[in-house]
């Protein structure tokens, strides 16, 4: 009897020293691992003697510490095993062996049997760990069924607290714990709320989620988690079609935690949804600058707590909500928006920044790759940047970028290519073959687009000969493609659509260039072909009329113009890459003047 | 690659840990870093060939990599990656108590140097300022990117990103022992732009950094990586996957490029075919079991779709323990041998995909024929280096932990140098090669000519020997069978000719080749002319004249005619013997320049005697019927022959008349006619002459017989030629011929038929004979002609058929008389000889007169020759 107490004291001492050491450098992984193994060793020592009531407190404390170590290292199965075995051993002294089919049943039995024993609080601490593990493994249903929050809350607020403080005040030889169970409970409660809210949101139960989150917003919690709560509330509201309220929530989230980039991202999405372009651009710019901050890449709350929210909040639905595109993607979006909405020079700058970032060796600062809205492929970025440069009348720079694309692709371009129906192809052929073929197709389209842009550049410079040259190159490339089926449906964004558009634009460009050099016959041929390939081409329509007019076929010219004006302009341009839009830089025809001509012609 | 490798063991580091891949890296000038799998890293100075430092780490070292500026060394061991700076190392080495001579500095690396805390790091790679760490987790490979600090700060590095690839069980290889370290290499697109943009780091690329041909780069790693000018990290895993990661591409993932299906032992780049300098054209991956995959650009892919990447697979005999590659060759060790594989034998990129099956199979076959270098137990190889002599030097670590320097023999250095040259130099060297080929050609043709010459000479010699054997055999057989003629022999005919108002007797010698052999170049016909008897006054040597006629070719059946002057008019040294022989000079076999070196050969020759001819008085007679005699057949000589002849006759007659008037009786005595007679049985003549001359008539009249006898005597040529013309004999119409001898004396030959029986007492049957009478004023002429006619008839007798018994009887009658006369005459001669011997009283004139008388008598009473 005497001996064990002596042993007990040394073990307690050992445990406490370990805990102290732990707190010195708790973050280093190796240290963590070392501590973990030390706690395991100590646990083996304490369990080396037969179970003894006096030892239970120490033993469970050591188990608690070891389990915390294991959980933090995401070794959940080991922790689970340790936990159940220790509790079974403790219960062997007091009562019968609690054998249960599953964990919840086991815990219910355990709680019932220990409810009035000395180590009730210890078991409850261990229950908290069980909660954390359930949360980390996303077993939200179990947590809900168990009503854990209420269960542990009574304990945390009630007797346990007094006992613990008593014990701490009374003796220095009470075994220390690596984390405070009360803090853990707080953390677990808010994390559970967040996780549940995200889960409900993904299950389209926005209102329930919102109520739960509103409850949680009053809980004591780290700022990041509070910001998450606001963010989730905002998401719920936006799901419930209350964009303005959602924006308010996002603003609150940002106010709570300035590093909550996802709130900014979500508000940007709402601006986009609302069509508030200026606000969207503003939000994008802010988002980009925030993402470029070094602090944004490191979660700031790991320091305060051993259990990081990322460990506990790992559910798929939540992480999809918290997803933020990379800085490069944001920058691309920003550049595109700027270019599309009249801030061309700004857009060009953003594009150039983007390209520079892609070429810098230091772009690894951008932490997360492979997130949802991916960047377009690199040649497309080049072409978009080129198109933006052309819009900004920097044709030399545009040509340089296009040259880069052409020189890269030129050697690999196929002599012939068969374009297949995408649906048919996916069924019929194996994946890798199509991947290769697709790549070839994409390359051809990139090179064609690059030639098209160069043609536009020359048009802009009024170098008609070169323009004709480049448009011809583009056309020559495009005619290498054969469609497998003649009656393929031109779908928005498909290769065929891009191909037809490129054909139309390049033919129109060449036709216009021919018009300028007074080769009216060739011009008419090209413009008509252009309209055949891409009927909505406004430039081709107008210029076709003009050529007809010049050739003296005035009635036809009038019909052509009127047909062209009847098109809903830019209806089909939405969602198309920047470089596939009709250029505004070429020679323009004044519609007023044309109408005037028609009126003059009218009486005759 | 013949020849042996020079292997030199520089140091020993003890047995490496068999469960880990040892590593040897050349770096930092002359230093080599060696880790054998233990917890120590050795720094070895190859120049001084000594161990300079030993770095001790807390746990076994798995990999090490040196920074581009060669100031830092990253070493991965059990607990993470340590960064050791060389300045620190040097300071530690100096401060350590070990003095310089005692050996290497031992430095225990403190834990502050731990920069990346990560467990089970297998491989390291440094790309620019990014440190890539590949480690194996429970269920995945984790490739982490860390940003390195510029100077050796002892703080941990910031992790930039990490990529994971699910682990595929590598099957049975896991259990078999050595855990192969994944291979990490970095590939840059070989565009000149990227070289300049990536600044100094690319100029001092380590062995695990390569510049790949841009087209191949695009094909393998995609166009985006090329456009971003991103370096691509290649990662060969022990499960056989070859993964790649474009470093700078946003959204890039670790993707599988190829699966080797066996642990990747080595990944390297080879130039193979040099088009643009510095860019490798081929990516080489070698598996542990010996599978070699070459990735190359293939022009003309399926359905004419431009260029594609071609994967050429081949198998070499495994296991491949380690490998290394230089411009054209792959070196690999199987543990028992070090082998070298020439990668340049592969197909050039021009072949299309369709033909890939045909073309790649010989390639694969060629790839499976590595050359052994006969170096065993190499466990690790450093990148090959070329030393000053151009030899390839490999640093290897053997199973026993020996650091070995393997110097390869310089066999293919020439090719390599050739391939390194720009096209102009290549053109020049092609020119050199062509001229060398020309030289060889020339030499071959010279040798061919020499052989041809020798064959020619042998053939020639063979002919010569044939000819000589033939002639020798015929000379031997001639003794027994005199009738048989030699296959090669000479005939001759005499002609008088007049040149510069001087008559001369020419002998035309005809060499008749009736042998089956060709007398080729080098043969000389030698004709020696000497008188049978010579006057005692003349010198012996001067009387013999030698003529030689070299000739070129004498084919079988052909004849060679040569003319030689025999005697001038007035020369009386007949009969003359003409001896013919064939001489072959050995020196003619060889050409002049060759004979100079063989002086003995110039004199050596083969002399083969042919036949000997006799030119007698009869041959030298000039018959005084110029129109019919063969000498004057020539129409041109006829015209000037007549006047001179008549003039001369006139002059000589005038002179005789004058001299006759003024001279004494002695002259008269000389002028008196001498005559000689020869009787030949006409039966004999009929028998023989019919055979030889007149085959047409069985019986000749007596008149005709006389004419034909004279004709035979005059037309017979030396050497038995029956070349007398038909016209000659017809012209000889009378049985009396006037002619001139060689000394100008006129002579009369007459033949008449006599009956011997009448003269004698007369028997029941008389014997008819032909008497040839020679009359001339010159006794010498008569003597000579007599001798000549006798010798002719002698020869005729030899060939005559057997005579009848009746003639013998008649002959015996004459013989007795003749014997009597002969006895008397011999008495006279005896007498005169005695008087001559003792004779003071008798003068020489008397004696000769008496001898002459005897002689006359002998001539006057000829024996009948039957």
TrEMBL record, chain A:
GO terms for biological process: interstrand cross-link repair. GO terms for cellular component: Fanconi anaemia nuclear complex. PANTHER family: FANCONI ANEMIA GROUP G PROTEIN (PTHR15254:SF2), FANCONI ANEMIA GROUP G PROTEIN FAMILY MEMBER (PTHR15254). This is FA complementation group G. The gene is FANCG.
């Amino acid at each position: 009897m005497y001996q064990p107490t002596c042993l007990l004291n040394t073990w307690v001492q050992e445990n406490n020293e370990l805990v102290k050491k732990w707190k010195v450098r708790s973050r280093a992984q190796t240290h963590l691992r070392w501590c973990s193994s030390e706690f395991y060793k100590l646990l083996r020592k304490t369990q080396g003697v037969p179970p003894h009531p006096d030892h239970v407190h120490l033993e469970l404390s050591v188990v608690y510490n070891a389990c915390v170590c294991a959980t933090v290292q995401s070794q959940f199965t080991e922790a689970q095993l340790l936990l159940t075995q220790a509790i079974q051993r403790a219960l062997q002294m007091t009562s019968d062996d609690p054998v249960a089919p599953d964990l919840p049943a086991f815990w219910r039995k355990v709680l019932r049997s220990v409810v009035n024993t000395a180590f009730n609080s210890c078991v409850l601490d261990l229950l908290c760990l069980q909660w954390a593990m359930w949360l980390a493994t996303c077993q939200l249903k179990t947590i809900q069924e168990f009503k854990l929050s209420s269960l542990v809350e009574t304990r945390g607020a009630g007797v346990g607290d007094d006992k613990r403080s008593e014990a701490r005040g009374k003796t220095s030889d009470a075994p220390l714990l690596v984390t405070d169970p009360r803090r853990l409970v707080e953390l677990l409660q808010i994390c559970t709320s967040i996780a549940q809210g995200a889960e409900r949101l993904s299950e389209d139960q926005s209102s329930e989620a919102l109520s739960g989150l509103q409850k949680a917003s009053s809980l004591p919690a780290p700022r990041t988690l509070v910001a998450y709560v606001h963010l989730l509330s905002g998401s719920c509201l936006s799901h419930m079609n209350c964009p303005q309220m959602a924006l308010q929530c996002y603003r609150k989230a940002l106010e709570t935690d300035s590093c909550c980039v996802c709130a900014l991202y979500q508000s940007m999405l709402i601006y986009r949804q609302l069509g508030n372009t200026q606000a969207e651009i503003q939000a994008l710019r802010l988002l980009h600058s925030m993402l470029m901050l070094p602090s944004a890449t490191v979660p700031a709350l790991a320091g305060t707590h051993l259990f990081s929210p990322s460990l506990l909040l790992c559910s798929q639905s939540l992480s999809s909500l918290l997803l933020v595109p990379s800085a490069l993607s944001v920058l691309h979006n920003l550049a595109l928006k700027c270019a599309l909405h009249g801030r061309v020079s700004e857009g060009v700058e953003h594009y150039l920044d983007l390209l520079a970032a892609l070429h810098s060796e230091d772009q690894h600062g951008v932490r997360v790759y492979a997130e949802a809205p991916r960047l377009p492929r690199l040649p497309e970025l080049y072409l978009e940047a080129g198109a933006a440069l052309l819009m900004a009348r920097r044709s030399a720079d545009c040509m340089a970028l296009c040259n880069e694309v052409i020189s890269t692709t030129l050697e690999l371009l196929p002599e012939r290519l068969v374009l297949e129906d995408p649906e048919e192809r996916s069924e019929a052929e194996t994946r890798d073959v199509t991947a290769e073929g697709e790549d070839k197709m994409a390359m051809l389209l990139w090179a064609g687009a690059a030639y098209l842009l160069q043609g536009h550049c020359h048009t802009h410079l009024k170098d008609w000969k070169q323009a004709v040259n480049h448009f011809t190159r583009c056309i020559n490339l495009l005619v290498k493609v054969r469609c497998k089926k003649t009656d393929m449906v031109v779908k928005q964004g498909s290769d065929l659509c891009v191909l037809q558009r490129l054909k139309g634009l390049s033919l129109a460009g060449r036709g216009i260039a021919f018009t300028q050099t007074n080769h009216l016959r060739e011009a008419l041929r090209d413009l008509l072909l252009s309209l055949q390939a891409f009927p909505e081409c406004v430039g081709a329509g107008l210029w076709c009329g003009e050529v007809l007019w010049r050739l003296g076929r005035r009635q036809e010219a009038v019909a052509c113009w009127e047909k062209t004006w009847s098109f809903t302009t830019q209806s089909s341009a939405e969602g198309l890459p920047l470089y596939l839009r009709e250029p505004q830089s070429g020679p323009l025809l004044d519609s007023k003047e044309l109408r005037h001509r028609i009126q003059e012609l009218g009486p005759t | 690659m013949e020849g042996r490798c020079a292997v030199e063991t520089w140091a020993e580091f003890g047995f490496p840990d068999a469960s880990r891949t040892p590593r040897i890296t050349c770096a930092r000038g002359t230093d080599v870093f060696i880790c054998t799998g233990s917890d120590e890293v050795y720094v070895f100075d190859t120049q001084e060939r000594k161990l300079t430092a030993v770095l001790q780490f807390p746990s076994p070292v798995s990999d090490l990599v040196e920074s581009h500026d060669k100031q830092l060394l990253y070493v991965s061991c059990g607990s993470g990656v340590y960064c050791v700076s060389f300045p620190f190392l040097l300071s530690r080495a100096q401060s350590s108590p070990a003095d310089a001579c005692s050996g290497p500095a031992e430095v225990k690396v403190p834990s502050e140097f731990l920069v990346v805390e990560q467990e089970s790091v297998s491989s390291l790679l440094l790309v620019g300022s990014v440190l890539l760490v590949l480690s194996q987790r429970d269920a995945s490979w984790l490739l982490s990117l860390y940003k390195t600090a510029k100077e050796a700060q002892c703080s941990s590095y910031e992790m930039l990103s990490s990529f994971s690839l699910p682990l595929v069980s590598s099957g049975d290889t896991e259990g078999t022992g050595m855990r192969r370290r994944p291979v990490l290499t970095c590939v840059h697109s070989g565009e000149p732009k990227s070289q300049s943009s990536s600044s100094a780091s690319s100029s001092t690329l380590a062995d695990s950094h390569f510049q790949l041909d841009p087209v191949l780069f695009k094909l393998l790693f995609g166009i985006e990586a090329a456009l971003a000018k991103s370096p691509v990290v290649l990662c060969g895993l022990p499960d056989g996957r070859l993964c790649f990661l474009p470093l700078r591409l946003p959204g890039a993932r670790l993707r599988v490029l190829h699966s080797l299906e066996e642990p990747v032992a080595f990944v390297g780049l080879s130039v193979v075919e040099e088009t643009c300098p510095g860019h490798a054209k081929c990516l080489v991956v070698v598996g542990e079991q010996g599978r070699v995959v070459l990735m190359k650009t293939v022009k003309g892919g399926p359905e004419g779709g431009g260029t594609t990447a071609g994967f050429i697979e081949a198998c070499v005999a495994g296991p491949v323990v380690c490998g290394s590659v230089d411009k054209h060759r792959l070196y690999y060790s199987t543990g028992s041998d070090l082998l070298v594989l020439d990668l340049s034998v592969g197909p050039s990129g021009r072949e299309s995909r369709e033909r890939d099956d045909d073309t790649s199979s010989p390639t694969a076959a060629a790839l499976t024929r590595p050359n052994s270098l006969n170096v065993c137990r190499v466990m690790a190889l450093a990148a090959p280096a070329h030393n000053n002599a151009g030899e390839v030097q490999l640093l290897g670590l053997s199973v026993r932990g020996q650091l070995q320097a393997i110097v390869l023999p310089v066999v293919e250095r020439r090719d390599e140098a050739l391939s390194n040259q720009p096209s102009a130099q290549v053109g020049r060297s092609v020119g050199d090669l062509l001229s060398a080929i020309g030289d060889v050609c020339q030499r071959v043709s010279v040798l061919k000519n020499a052989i041809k010459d020798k064959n020619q000479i042998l053939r020639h010699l063979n002919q010569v020997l044939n000819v000589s054997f033939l002639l020798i055999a015929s000379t031997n057989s001639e003794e027994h069978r005199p009738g048989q003629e030699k296959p090669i022999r000479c005939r001759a005919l005499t002609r008088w000719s007049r040149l510069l108002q001087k008559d001369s007797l020419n002998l035309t010698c005809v060499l008749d080749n009736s042998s089956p052999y060709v007398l080729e170049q080098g043969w000389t016909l030698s004709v020696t002319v000497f008188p049978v008897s010579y006057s005692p006054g003349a010198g012996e040597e001067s009387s013999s004249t030698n003529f030689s006629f070299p000739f070129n070719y004498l084919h079988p059946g052909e004849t060679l005619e040569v003319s030689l002057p025999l005697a001038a008019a007035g020369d009386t040294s007949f009969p003359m013997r003409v001896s013919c022989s064939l001489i072959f000079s050995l020196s003619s076999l060889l050409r002049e320049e060759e004979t100079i070196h063989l002086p003995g050969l110039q004199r050596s020759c083969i002399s083969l005697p042919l036949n000997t001819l006799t030119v007698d008085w009869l041959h030298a007679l000039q018959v005084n019927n110029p129109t019919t005699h063969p000498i004057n057949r020539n129409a041109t000589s006829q015209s000037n022959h007549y006047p001179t002849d008549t003039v001369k006759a006139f002059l000589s007659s005038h002179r005789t008349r004058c001299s006759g008037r003024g001279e004494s009786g002695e002259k008269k005595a000389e002028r008196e006619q001498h005559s000689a007679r020869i009787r030949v049985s006409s039966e004999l003549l009929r028998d023989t002459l019919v055979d030889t001359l007149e085959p047409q008539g069985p019986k000749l009249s007596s008149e005709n017989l006389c004419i034909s006898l004279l004709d035979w005597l005059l037309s017979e040529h030396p050497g038995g030629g029956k070349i007398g013309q038909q016209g000659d004999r017809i012209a000889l119409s009378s049985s009396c011929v006037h002619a001139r001898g060689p000394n100008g004396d006129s002579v009369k030959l007459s033949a008449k038929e006599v009956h011997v029986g009448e003269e004698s007492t007369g028997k029941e049957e008389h014997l008819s004979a032909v008497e040839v009478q020679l009359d001339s004023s010159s006794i010498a002429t008569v003597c000579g002609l007599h001798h000549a006619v006798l010798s002719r008839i002698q020869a005729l007798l030899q060939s005559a058929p057997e005579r009848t018994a009746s003639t013998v009887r008649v002959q015996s009658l004459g013989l007795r008389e003749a014997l009597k006369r002969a006895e008397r005459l011999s008495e006279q001669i005896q007498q005169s000889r005695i008087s001559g011997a003792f004779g003071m009283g008798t003068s020489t004139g008397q004696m000769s007169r008496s001898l002459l008388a005897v002689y006359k008598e002998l001539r006057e009473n000829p024996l009948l020759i039957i």
